[in-house]
Amino acid sequence: MGNITFEAPLMSDAFAKGIQPEVLFWVGCAGSFDDRAKAITVAFVKILNKVGQSFAVLGTEESCTGDPAKRAGNEFLFQMQAMSNIQVLDGYGVKRIVTACPHCFNTLKNEYPNLGGNYEVIHHSTFLQELLDAGKLAIEGGKFEGKKITYHDSCYLGRANRVYEAPRRLIEALDAQLVEMKRSRSKGLCCGAGGAQMFKEPEAGSKDINIERTEEALKTEATIVAAACPFCMTMLSDGMKNKEKEDSVQVLDLAELIALAEGLN
Amino acid sequence: MGILLQLVFLLLLGTASFYIYKNVKRIRRNILLGKPENRADQPLLRLKTMALVALGQKKMFKKPIPAVLHLAVYLGFLIVNIEILEIVIDGLAGTHRIFAPYLGTIYPLLITVFEFFAVSVIVACVVFLIRRNVLSIPRLQSAELTAAPKLDANIILITEIVLMLALLSMNATDLVLQARGSHHYFATGNFFFSGLLIPFFNLFSNETLVVIERVCWWFHIAGVLAFANYVFYDSKHLHIFMAFINTYFSKLTPAGQFENMPTVTKEVKLMLSLPLTEAETALGEAGRFGAKDAIDLTWKNLLDAYSCTECGRCTQQCPANITGKKLSPRKIMMDTRDRIEEIGKNMDTKGKDYDDGKSLLDTYITAEELLACTTCNACVEACPINIDPLSIIVQLRQYRIMEASQAPAAWNGMLSNIENNAAPWKFSPSDRMNWVEKLNK
Ligand code: SF4
Ligand code: SF4
Q: Is residue A81 assigned to a domain?
């Protein structure tokens, strides 16, 4: 596999060449700037390259969807962001968007249409499941065989948009043993980052939410915690460090799991 | 004597109905103090939601034990009320068990079914009383359950037990009198559950039994009317009716989708010189952004507040509450209801424009509670009657940020980063593609 040169084509370049990529990969702010989340972006782009998916990214033309502003209560800033993003997306005639961030996914899919931005938006877990169903993923057996993996439902993917199955289908396809936490699917416990909590200290309480969730994940005795959101990733990784488990329990995004199974490391 | 009792009954029924009517009007008026919101679309899907969630109690069955007990009380309530129909007709017409001769052998069967539910109500209410007062179930003990809501719950449970006991005693005495051939008492055939009480009531003379039977009859109907009045006056038990209305008007869009404020859309479009739609042009001056007081919320938020049964399923699932933060979605609903009741009372007693200097935000709900919310939707998912505490939390947050400029410093940083750097962190927008360096390493 080492001989592929992975590419991340820019929308502006494709446009200049008169190419209309099938799908826009919306990287998101975490996927662009956060060091841990960048690895998820890289893993996903490698998969896109490997399966020969026609795609592009906006690069420096991408801007925050406005999700944290909206959840914090600043509707003005949210709508300013939304309108200018819609201008960019429409300028390129974008039809289909895939993103690895459930917050971007929710905002683009549900809150942009009413402001004039109409796209088919899917989360990368659904996108990867489609690849799986179409037989485009090889998934070399053995890498995860028999390993215990637990999946942490992201609120904005699960309860907010009822995507519960795609992530689980992917984990099962790895021949891994999927073990559920006590609170999962519609009852899944938040990691503590949503609603712009990521960007401030938590209020006073008896415990931090990510610790509560990390403890629950540890109870399953899984050696891998699968996440589907860059913010959950941060919260759970911090939780593992706090519990001094970062060496024995890995927190990995679904895209990273699939990339590993595809031999794309 | 007979006609006099009929008049007394009529007066009782009339008075009770009048006060229920007045309270229903009051509640409706208070709910409509809220802002408009369109929930009239997709009537079929709405009916289906109501049938599944309110009638079918779909979400209750996430917790099987309370669900079965609750179902017993709920069915008991619906079914025993059919017997009330006969009682009301008897009371007005001066008859006794008017349906018995017409229904023949079906009558005792029907009454036995009613009695079965009456007995299940008693059993369920006793278990509920034990759960509330003896076992320490956290959901039923939290801070916002102060003396008043606890008393409310106990009053209701005890009243239901007493009413059902009166019903059974009334039937049992009737059976004894029938057996002794008292001419006024039509031989209906045996009722199974009250039949079990016959040996006890056989100890009494006919005269005593007649008195007991009548006392129970009057007590039962007066109790039911008083109960109905109490429910509509001020009780969480309004949910018996509100559950249906509230689930009909449920939010049908994805839980993660928050409303976009149209007045903001208009201003943003004007700022960016984008064309306005007709509806946007017609929009008046933007009023207050977000909500400071209960009347700034939508009518649906207020309907939610009146529907809340204070069960605490929301709070039990709330990640902030679980980890010891002050936020409790149940408290958000209870506060909203208390405040809109207070505003309504002020309007009635002190005039329409009276300002008591209080507001839902700050007087009732603190910034600390609002800031702890992760917008995770666990409370919305958990609520057995589709109440949306998150909607209220977000509107109060909007007021704090857009009107009062009260964002915590860290949020101000995040917001200005989005504005200036197009990301919530302070990175240069030109570094957005730096991850590409790792692609071929
Ligand atoms: S949305 Fe907010 S109030 Fe509701 S459960 Fe989540 S954190 Fe608690
Ligand atoms: S909002 Fe719903 S879940 Fe919460 S206490 Fe009220 S009825 Fe129960």
A: yes
Q: For residue A111, is it within any domain?
A: yes
Laid out side by side, the sheet with A177-179 consists of A177-179, A148-151, A224-227, A250-253
Instruction: For ligand 1, say whether the CB of B377 is within 6 Å of any of its atoms.
Output: yes
- Domain final residue pick, A82, A106, A129: A129
In this structure, the answer to whether residues A105 and A170 fall within a common structural domain is no
CA of A79 to the centre of ligand 2 (A): 31
A173/A255 same-domain check: yes
Please give the DSSP secondary-structure letter assigned to residue A203: P
Q: Does the beta carbon of A259 lie under 8 angstroms from any beta carbon of chain B?
A: no
Q: What is the C-alpha to C-alpha distance for residues B373 and B375, in angstroms, rounded to an integer?
A: 5
Query: Which ligand 1 atom is the nearest neighbour of the CA of A155?
Result: 6
Number of domains present in the structure of chain A = 2
| Ligand nearest, relative to CA of residue B371 | 1
Q: Are A6 and A13 in contact (CB under 8 A)?
A: no
CB contact under 8 A, B324 and A206: yes
Give the per-residue pLDDT at A265: 76
Bridge partners (DSSP) of residue A250 are A224
Identify whether residues A145 and A257 lie together within a single domain. Answer: yes
Same domain, A113 and A57: yes
Among A48, A76, A88, A198, which would you mutate to test the B interface (most chain B Cβ atoms within 10 Å of its Cβ)?
A76
Task: Return the CATH number at A62.
Answer: 3.40.50.1860
Mean pLDDT of the residues in chain B:
90
Residues A174 and A246 in one domain: yes
Residue B78: the pLDDT is: 79
Q: What is the mean pLDDT of residues A188-212?
A: 96
CA B387 to chain centre: 9
Q: Classify residue A148: in a domain, yes or no.
A: yes
Q: Which ligand is nearest to the CA of B325?
A: 1
Structure-block tokens of residue B412:
């101000």
Residue B111 has pLDDT above 50, yes or no: yes
Q: What is the mean pLDDT of residues A64-71?
A: 98
Q: Which of residues 89-118 of A touch B (CB under 8 A)?
A: 106, 109-111, 114-115
**CA–CA min distance A258, chain B (Å):** 16
Domain co-membership, A249 together with A144: yes
A210 & A250 share domain: yes
Closest CB from B264, B377, B430 relative to A155: B377
Q: Any idea which architecture B262-429 has in CATH?
A: Orthogonal Bundle (1.10)
Q: Which of B59, B270, B396, B414 to mutate to test the interface with A (most CBs of A within 10 A)?
A: B414
Closest CA of chain B from A93, distance in Å: 18
B361-388 burial string, b = 16+ CB within 10 Å, else e?
beebbebebbbbbbbbbbbbbbbbbbbb
B407 touches chain A (CB under 8 A): yes
CB B92 within 8 A of CB B9: yes
- Ligand 1: centre distance to CA B334 (Å): 15
Chain B residue at shortest CA distance from A44: B439
What are the domain boundaries of chain B? Answer: 2-31+63-248, 262-429
* CATH number of the domain residue A242 falls in: 3.40.50
Per-residue confidence band for A1, with pLDDT thresholds at 50, 70 and 90: very low
pLDDT for B178: 84
Q: How far is the CA of B304 from the centre of ligand 2 (A)?
A: 9
> Could you tell me if A16 and A104 lie in one domain?
yes
Task: Say if ligand 2 is within 6 A of residue B396 CB.
Answer: no
Looking at the CA of B312, name the nearest ligand: 2
Domain range enclosing A218: 139-261
| Alpha carbon separation from A8 to A19, A45, A53, B100 (Å, rounded) | 14, 7, 11, 83
The total of other beta-carbon atoms located within 10 Å of residue A2's CB is 4
Residue A33 within a domain? yes
